[in-house]
Amino acid sequence: MIQAGEQAHSLLPNKYTFIPDLSHHLKSCYMNLLQRIEYWGDRHHPKWADIIRIALGLFLCYKGMDFLNNMSDLIGIISPNKYQDSIWYILAGHYTVFAHIAGGIFLALGVLTRMACLIQIPILLGAVFFLSTNEEMLRPYSELFLTILVLLLLIYFLIAGNGPWAVKIKEDKSKPE
Question: Looking at residues 128-141, what average pLDDT do you find?
Fold first, then answer.
């Protein structure tokens, strides 16, 4: 004999279970897309691109140290009011320095390459915005071209990954989950 609660549950159509199935399907499609991008990046990564990745990492380390030496100038570029520094502008300056130095080291070594690119991209998007509003943008040796070039390289390495000349981190597969 069927209880009253069981009978009501069995009468519900399957359309009410559609929402959890949809979220699971979207999550699996998203993960599948990320796995396909990672697979493509691992298979289509020439060795000369690693030389560019190492040079990009060293350049970002240099720029991070340069920003560290000139922190007041960096905060002055970010801050709209030259005389009043907000804590947010100071934090943005310190984040820029940390991200350039740590991300540059990670890029040069090929460790956590995609994460290093992810922490760099917002900084360079902000730099493109600040440099494009500058009146010296059209001068012959503008930094805007270099900023856009570094941004495009970071987007490439975000997709392509670290390549064959990278420090490999061994994963301990003996740990139970």
Answer: 66
